[in-house]
Amino acid sequence: MKDKQIEKLIIEESTRQKKVINLIASENYVSDDVLKALGSVLTNKYAEGYPGARYYGGNEISDKVENLCKVRALGLFALDENEWAVNVQPLSGSPANVAVYLALVEPGQKIMGMHLVHGGHLTHGHKVSITGKIWKQIPYGVDKDSEVLNYEALKELAKTEQPKLIVAGFTAYPRVIDFKKFRDIADACGTLLMVDMSHFAGLVAGQTYPSPFEYADIVTTTVHKTLRGPRSAMIFSKKDARGLPQKIDKAVFPGMQGGPHLNQIAAVAVALREADSPAFKKYAKQVIKNAKVLSNELAKLGWRIISGGTDSHLILMDTWKNGIGVSGKEASLKLEKAGIIVNMNTIPFDTRSPMDPSGIRLGTAAETTRGKKEGDMVKIARKIDAVLRARGSRRE
Ligand SMILES: *Cc1c(COP(=O)(O)O)cnc(C)c1O
């Protein structure tokens, strides 16, 4: 690069990424091909509109790129193009979710989503997000004792509140979600069911986590988490008389954004093809195996794992332990000094603040991409335990 300042920073970041153990549950490492597509000349092109209906000339190739990406997206999740549509233009997960609400929920109407501190995402209607300002969130949480979803309680809440849309799919819920039960809840009050599979999309693609497509009306996802693609998002919607895909397309463009990022769409297409392979299925299986081992080892070492374990790539761990441990913030700082990167996280019914919560969130997607196996997880668990127990670390 001619720009030595930025070049140096990129090299520094690359070195940093290589030398740490990365347990951030929402991160991953993309392939060189994904990086090549992202860094391609496709970034030079304006392509406002959709394939076959652009507002600028010269989009013959853009159309091919976007169409190929859509075919691969439907193919990866085994969806029939007569039943499902996909929009691959959202710039990231948050704008994708906003676009769905913009398309289907009138301002002021209710969206039922999981509370942030129980593992929901900001864009599921939290008040600090635009989704909580334009729409009214009906928050739900996990059961206090089991720390898993209580579908009966959700059904009662939905029947009472009559939301326009229910969101299932979370950022810090380690368990499998029963999508059929969510469908029953949505049907009981005639509401739309949106599944935000951002975190576990790669596990669905790898057939190691239940697929939401049989039950959802809309499925949104980021591409950059377990799916191991570039930072981007997709919105899948059911094709039927309700016209969901048309409304969603309009909400994405011109509702939310201008020109799509074609380089990003090409990189998504590359990632989708990579995920459609036996090697990726093996990867997804290993991600879950690793998470289970990490979770079990930490539990054996005396740490409380929220809900008692995990069915996915992520683990929520109570580091505070009613004051005998360390706070989530302290834990993440100490671990970072020891070369282990995690993020602090609230735990359900947290008594501490989100700025310094009671727990940390761990995920195995990134380290599994780097070839880590069960034995490595045992070592990582021991290291985490040693760091958190180190002298001066506990408030005895
Ligand atoms: C990550 C995530 C998002 C938001 O994605 P961004 O690309 O960070 O905007 C939305 N929903 C869920 C469940 C997520 O995990």
Notable features of this structure?
Aspartate Aminotransferase, domain 2; Aspartate Aminotransferase, domain 1; 2 domains; seven-stranded mixed β-sheet; four-stranded antiparallel β-sheet; 14 helices; 41% helix; binds pyridoxal-5'-phosphate
Would you kindly provide a written description of the structure presented here, covering whatever features stand out?
- There is one protein chain.
- This protein is α/β, with parallel strands linked by helices and 396 residues long.
- The chain has two domains: 32-275, 3-Layer(aba) Sandwich (Aspartate Aminotransferase, domain 2), CATH 3.40.640.10; 281-389, Aspartate Aminotransferase, domain 1 (Alpha-Beta Complex), CATH 3.90.1150.10.
- The chain has helices spanning 4-19, 32-38, 60-76, 93-104, 130-134, 151-161, 179-188, 201-205, 244-256, 262-275, 278-300, 328-337, 365-369, 374-389, and strands spanning 21-22, 49-50, 53-54, 84-87, 110-114, 136-140, 165-168, 192-196, 218-222, 233-238, 304-305, 314-318, 340-341, 343-345, 359-363.
- It has a seven-stranded mixed beta sheet, sandwiched between helices. It has a four-stranded antiparallel beta sheet with strand order 11-12-15-14. Strands 1-13 form a two-stranded parallel ribbon.
- It is globular and about 65 Å long.
- The structure holds pyridoxal-5'-phosphate.
- Pyridoxal-5'-phosphate (PLP) is lined by residues 26, 92-94, 97, 121, 123, 169-171, 196, 198-199, 222.
Short description:
With 396 residues, the protein is of the alpha/beta class. 41% of the residues lie in helices and 14% in strands.
